[in-house]
Specification:
The protein is of the alpha/beta class. The protein is built from 10 helices and 9 strands. The protein has 2 domains: about 30-245, P-loop containing nucleotide triphosphate hydrolases (Rossmann fold), CATH 3.40.50.300; about 250-310, no CATH class. The longest helix has 18 residues, at about 70-90.
Amino acid sequence: MIMGTERAAPLGQRLLFWQLELCIYVYQLSEEEPAEGEEGTEGDGVPSFQEWALPAAEFAGLWDSLVYDTDVKARLLRYAMTALRFGDAGVDPALVSFNRTVLLHGPPGTGKTTLCKALAQKLCIRFGHRYAMGQLVEVNAHSLFSKWFSESGKLVSRLFAKIGELVEEEDALVCVLIDEVESLTAARRAAVAGSEPADAVRAVNALLTQLDALKRRPNVLVLTTSNITEAIDLAFVDRADIKAYIGLPGLQARYEILASCCAELQRAGVLAATSPLPPPFAQLATALGEDQDVEAAGKLAVRDWTIACAFLTPLQSTKF
């Protein structure tokens, strides 16, 4: 069971009960291992996709573990819920343009893929009253390129044909995750210049065609990530309804991440219950007063608590 609210608040801000509208969602986590699709190239055994039944126990707690300085999580959730509601209401995408496609971009290691998985899990829980089951299909883009001429486009089409079979179930919510989408959507102008093989152009064309076909389905959402947005074909970028930059965490986010790590180590028994934990970041401003430099104090707090983590009392000594 989880309690949620539609209202977004700045990181660390406290809200009173009368400022919220509580929603209670009851669900059961799936313990199933992800299924694999053996559609890779040249029979190399590399699966072209993995499929999870949602909500999955493997993704439990992901959403809350992600800390950002901006309201990117709330924005993505609002967009995705609106897009799915548009589909349910029968809104004509030719009049109100929406492709139900998300592009998260930014430097490596900022949690883009994890955020996509957490969003899929969140949507499955929120729409549990509408869809009997949820599925996350993670595409292995690197397995869709073949050494044989013109085969890459066929592999892309074959993969999306399987996804289309899943989407045929109207009581199933299907989220498609394409990580490092630039490997599948390399800019076609590079191929024209001679730096990319012509088969890569066919793969891009096939993907764009399949995305256009999927947008007519009301129960599917496409989530993509990229570390190199300059390499993505502009036609794909244009199809993304929302393009969100996921940057490196700022001071407050780093502090909150550190605090959550300390709390988890204490909960798991790695740290003794008597070990002091970092106070909430908001308390720094209160304790220092208006005349103090909270930014500088925050940086010192992050540094001091990072050093202190090495001296927190472990529950028992462990030799490695």
